[in-house]
Design a protein that fits this description.
Two copies of one chain form a homodimer. Chain A is 42% helix and 15% strand. With 371 residues, chain A is of the alpha/beta class. In chain A, α2 (30-38) packs across α3 (47-60). β2 (108-113) of chain A pairs antiparallel with β2 of chain B. The structure holds a DNA duplex (16 and 16 nucleotides).
Chain lengths: 371, 371
Amino acid sequence: MDKGRSRPGAAAATGAVTLSVVAERAGVSLATASRVLHGSGGRAVGDALRTRVFAAAEELRYVSNGPAQTLARATSSVVGLVVHDVADPYFSAIAAGAMRVARAHDLMVMVAATFRDPKLELEYLARLRAQRARAVLLAGSGFADPQFSERLSAEIGVFEQQGGRVALIGDHGVSADTVLPDNRGGAAEAVRHLWELGHRRIGVVAGPRELATVAQRLDGARAALRALGGQLPDEHVVEADFTRAGGRAAGIELLHRRPELTAILALNDMMAAGVLAALREDLRRPVPAEVSVIGFDDLPQAADLHPALTTVRLPLEEIGERAMRLILEDEERPEPDGGEHRNGVQLGGTPRSVHVPAVLVVRASTGAVSA
Amino acid sequence: MDKGRSRPGAAAATGAVTLSVVAERAGVSLATASRVLHGSGGRAVGDALRTRVFAAAEELRYVSNGPAQTLARATSSVVGLVVHDVADPYFSAIAAGAMRVARAHDLMVMVAATFRDPKLELEYLARLRAQRARAVLLAGSGFADPQFSERLSAEIGVFEQQGGRVALIGDHGVSADTVLPDNRGGAAEAVRHLWELGHRRIGVVAGPRELATVAQRLDGARAALRALGGQLPDEHVVEADFTRAGGRAAGIELLHRRPELTAILALNDMMAAGVLAALREDLRRPVPAEVSVIGFDDLPQAADLHPALTTVRLPLEEIGERAMRLILEDEERPEPDGGEHRNGVQLGGTPRSVHVPAVLVVRASTGAVSA
DNA sequence: CTGTTAGCGCTTTCAA
DNA sequence: TTGAAAGCGCTAACAG
């Protein structure tokens, strides 16, 4: 147990201030130091020693070695958050909500961006498992690919078996705790709004159909239109990147192909911004006088678009919060009495799902059909 | 060394797949398994064993225990990123750039949001140190508070002493590697642009002056105006939150107080969006016919504002990238021969700084003064 | 209430 | 090449 004779391992003797240095300085045992500094209960340890330990720790600017703690405790204080792209306002809003909750639980957050690459999603999940993240939140939209879903399922399975919790936002085609934004219902509402304004020839500017979010919104729009007695032929749908640029290109193409359309539903606000730009700068068609535009998400900037965007609001920050709470708190979990146990971890409890409604926000980009 | 008899510590016997399980399955020693799976050089270990180890690892879905690895190696594969607010596009753009670089280095990123609370900045820095982050990037603007700077300096000092690298974005009043956006020069350019358009009565909508970014931009504007023969009296400056709402309120107040102003410089695009909203919805003054508005940052949404915002562009993603490269790569470091060493860590090498120019982007929100 | 001690899972000498 | 074994810094029985 003598110091200064280290060989294997790494740093040491270098002056790293470890718990035992603190203990020594305070004249107490390692265990005592550990108890006062990280003692879970707060119980035990007399005042005299406690004070000395705190003092020593303070002087030495001691901070515990997180990895060592994680190793010893077999539980970490970090959670993972996997998104498609942090610079995308949709995800950064979700991230903000999720991080707020993590902060309330005193947890650090590891953020990973997949740039919509399913492979990376799997890879990051594994790395988060390697880091012993206590929980991970998959915020990206799922991919409509059964083979991928299966691998995701497997990866989630081993993560949970290892004691980690997983929550998803949106349908990923796997069974786990999920927060489900009402994509279908929201799109249906958007369509109904247009219909009531007299629009009958409606086009849709969509993102890649592999994204579950896109598929659901498209589905909701189509179903609603049909229920209303209208229809959404395939030529009325143009698919492009789920971005502003994609929206602009798709908007141009759509109106080029079907100039008679009187309204366009963009499947997210970024695309809607692109459609508005196309209408204004490329096509020179007044909105909403000649064509109405409606978006989805209600990003903060939607109200600043010109004209102010009518859209379907999703409470993004709240969605992030709910999802994080799902894995960090157990309030919403049904009684776990029936669940099987294995390795001390409850498995197979019915996955919970939280439904989040979407609400229509009418602004200035939609109007009654004129011609 | 016999298994299945654990007592202290934690998980084990539970079926956790550890390196030694893999080794056993492959019929090799722990050391060998470690070498093939994480061997730095790639050297050593015969083909036969190597293959068996890989196979075993695959079957067992083994992933190494990151914390254990970090503990043993005394170096981690995570970097920290401290921002004010992930939902703020300014920071999410920086974060995107930084994360791209981290990804290229195969590092995970821990993101912390301080919500502009200096205390939290210090706290997170300590926690990142506790997590043994290999480097941390402080992306928040500095605070003009010498006492805080001193504490920050100290915290950064111990972090570096521990072997970590630190980089800052913007002036934090401490000596460390820094990426410096040209706030002063950018603001000066903005003012010159307005001046050339004939504006002489210019107002400024500012964020909190404690933020170094705000102070610098304000400074640059004032200096430029003076150099031009004009001036910026205190009553022409209104301070508010560095947000859209703050901009809206400040815009209203400013024009209420000085209706004769013909141009407003908002110290960031979010505030500019608020000013435009105020002008359009509250004050009903046409832009740029009656008053010109210019922003700062050139967020992606600036072009979609109405009218399209003239602003000063900062290459945010690039800034994030440069900063991360500063701490992850050593390309830009001057020859380190003169630096003092301590604990094997180079200390006191002249901090590097990277200057990033700001460029004026003229769009539709500024015009020649009319009256 | 406090100290001893056996690990947590992995890396890295040192010897073979 | 390969293996044995000594830690890395901390936690948590277990005894006192």
